[in-house]
Amino acid sequence: MADETTTDRNGDVMILARNNRGRLVACVWNQDMVNGLPSLPMREGDVVICSYAKSGCHWTWETARLLMSHHEAVVQQTEKEQCMIEMSTLEKLEALKSPRLLNNHGFFDEQPLSEMIAKGVKVIFVYRNLKSVATSFYHHHTRFQEYNYSATFDNYLSRFLDGLVDNDSAFSYLRGWEKGIAETPDLKVHVLSYEEMKKHPMEELRRLSKFLGGSEDEEFLKKVFEETDFDTMQKKKAKTTLYFDSNGLPVMYRKGTIGDWKNHFTVAQSELMDSAIQKELGDSKMFKFQYE
Ligand code: A3P
């Protein structure tokens, strides 16, 4: 997977790469893992978090880790980033003790589906409203040097809408997952919304813990809630996260709110996004985007 300089309709460039299905991915990902994802060996007890970039994967990973730690042989004390399939190697994943809590940004049709079904793997699928995703991704792209990218937010938005980012088009990604989940009833999938987790944390924690076969004890869930609250996580993970920007700030823990997109979008940009979402995902039954 050679680095690819992508030029958008405004002439801005971003360094990415392309997988063997022709989809754009990050140039720092391990190409063997990206292209080998569909045939990745799975284990009984594995849990895999799947999400489009910037949809709350770190948060969900830490939440699931704590929920699983309570009821199973303790999930290995490690970081989400070390359990990301695209950044790992077969040997490193093999070395993780069960139950493994993995994560990836692959499209539905790139998942190791037959292995997942055969081994009873549990999949947690997280999504977030796309105005927040675009906002968060803009900061991600401008803060990580490997993209060699700088542009205004306005220019960025057309790049995002055109799917010229690692993780490719958010619309295709989400459509593919909705269709895949609907057509694959044997796959164990739990769908989570970032905004629902923010607004109704205890309810969502209870649902998730039930899916994972864990405790629904109120006190325990409250502790998990406190441990995974944004401020707590931002402080705690500043010591352990692998990714910092050139100012030494942890890129993966930025604002952690529902409404920060309003500080970036003009009314016209918001309407542009609304009409793109309507056109691309207007008939979705699964995605209920919440903006505040
Ligand atoms: P923002 O950039 O909007 O703050 P991912 O983990 O999928 O890359 O998503 C990153 C986004 O999730 C970032 O969004 C990050 O700040 C936010 N996030 C990380 N931890 C969180 C938490 N504990 N609660 C809420 N949001 C969190």
UniProtKB/TrEMBL annotation:
SUPFAM superfamilies referenced in this protein's UniProt entry, alphabetically: P-loop containing nucleoside triphosphate hydrolases (SSF52540)
Domain of life per record: Eukaryota
Gene3D superfamilies the UniProt entry points to: P-loop containing nucleotide triphosphate hydrolases
Residue stretches making up the Sulfotransferase domain: 45-284
InterPro entries: P-loop_NTPase, Sulfotransferase_dom
Alphabetized UniProt keyword annotations: Transferase
Family note: Belongs to the sulfotransferase 1 family.
This protein's name: Sulfotransferase 1C4
Origin species: Aplysia californica
Classification of source organism: Eukaryota, Metazoa, Spiralia, Lophotrochozoa, Mollusca
